[in-house]
Amino acid sequence: MNKIDDQKIASSGNSKNIIKFDNSNNILECEKLSVNYGDATAIENVSMGIPKNSIVSLIGPSGCGKSTLLRCFNRMNDLIPQARVNGSVKFYQNEIYSDDVDPTEIRFRIGMVFQRPNPFPKSIYENIAFGPKINGITDNLDEVVENSLKRAAVWDEVKDRLNESALSISGGQQQRICIARALAVNPEVILMDEPASALDPISTQSIEDLILELSSDVTILIVTHNMQQATRISDYAAFMLAGEERIGRLIEYGTNEQVFGNPKDERTEAYVTGRIG
């Protein structure tokens, strides 16, 4: 796939604020993206570009469409009955919702980690080896498993327990196992939906440290309600909000310094300073 040549505009739906990054290295972008669940509109007219090897936080109150938007980037909404996606989502310059695109391949290249750890009821080893096996990789599985667990910063904790159930370890370790499972197929992007919300502070710190380390060669989009977390780990932040009609829209998107330090929209300022939430 070729790299994207043109940076798309990150707009805010019906907001007057439009941010255009001076960056030609997008790996993902969406344009005029809307999602309906049956007759209900969940998000409307979202346009944004995701620079390669960046960490982008999606922030906003509950119910504003952050998770819906996240799932658009690897076609997970396809699995939800009555979900309908309109608009464009491109991975590099390729439209991922084209009829000739295999969504399973997209989900390997754009992995996902969910809010609560969800290891398979298998051994730690089999959890990590699952994706490579599905892809027909049978050689050097031991090396793949070890490297993935090392990248997820959990190898030293589980290297003597590989044949034990992944459900037998702590919640923080389980979440890093899920990240290692995603890493085992060498994704270029990982989507994270509040990956630390169910974890204690020490485990949360481990996940944040891991995200920062992985961003050197993996692009990460993370949904978070934790403003401190967003400011600690993100390069960019996207603020979403749903009005009385409960339709999620992108209000503001920019660098962390701009969104948290000098927001252009008063609604963004109210949210990041805790006046609304």
Keyword list:
277 residues, alpha/beta, 12 strands
In short:
With 277 residues, the chain is α/β, with parallel strands linked by helices.
- Strands of the widest sheet, in order across it, are 2-1-4-3-6-7
Radius of gyration, CA atoms, in whole angstroms: 19 Å
How would you name the CATH homologous superfamily? P-loop containing nucleotide triphosphate hydrolases
Q: What is the CATH C level class, in words?
A: Alpha Beta
Secondary structure layout:
Blueprint: E1 9-12, E2 18-20, E3 26-37, E4 40-51, E5 55-59, H1 66-72, E6 83-91, E7 94-95, H2 103-109, E8 110-113, H3 124-134, H4 141-151, H5 155-158, H6 171-183, E9 189-193, H7 201-214, E10 219-223, H8 227-233, E11 236-242, E12 248-255, H9 256-261, H10 266-272
Parallel strand pairs: 5-10, 5-11, 8-9, 9-10
Antiparallel strand pairs: 1-2, 1-4, 3-4, 3-6, 6-7, 11-12
